Amino acid sequence: MDIVTICPALVIGPLMQPTVPTSIKVFFDIVKGEGETVGNRLEILLDVRDVANALLLAYETPEASGRYICSSTPRKLCDIINISKSLYPNFTYPQKFLEVEEEDSTTFSSEKLQKLGWTFRHMEETIRDSFESYTALGILT
């Protein structure tokens, strides 16, 4: 028996269901912040459609084996929020960023998955489609 696993980063993106998954709640906490100032740490967000593509690719590729990290490019929180603000300026966002020392410099690489032909969307597309989905469902106001 061959077992192939896909290990994704924090998954966001358009929803197909009316319930809010935990990863989306975490995303809301990241973007909205707890106050005016937030720690400017690295975040790795991944589009749910890219995870679905990775799963299909691993399933349909006979030479796929083992574990695959499914991750996009890490971005600083200020970059994620600035992208969100430029697309959706009417929401409330943290205003100040405090540089924080990263606890762990571990790097997650999707190189093995990319060698199978997998790619991921640009962060701007993921954030835009996410916000549109969440506002249409009434879970982001």
From TrEMBL:
InterPro entries per the UniProt record, alphabetical: NAD(P)-bd_dom_sf (IPR036291), NAD(P)_dehydrat-like (IPR050425)
Keywords: Oxidoreductase
Protein name: NAD-dependent epimerase/dehydratase domain-containing protein
Organism: Leersia perrieri
Top-level taxon: Eukaryota
Keyword check for Repressor: no
GO molecular function: oxidoreductase activity, acting on the CH-OH group of donors, NAD or NADP as acceptor
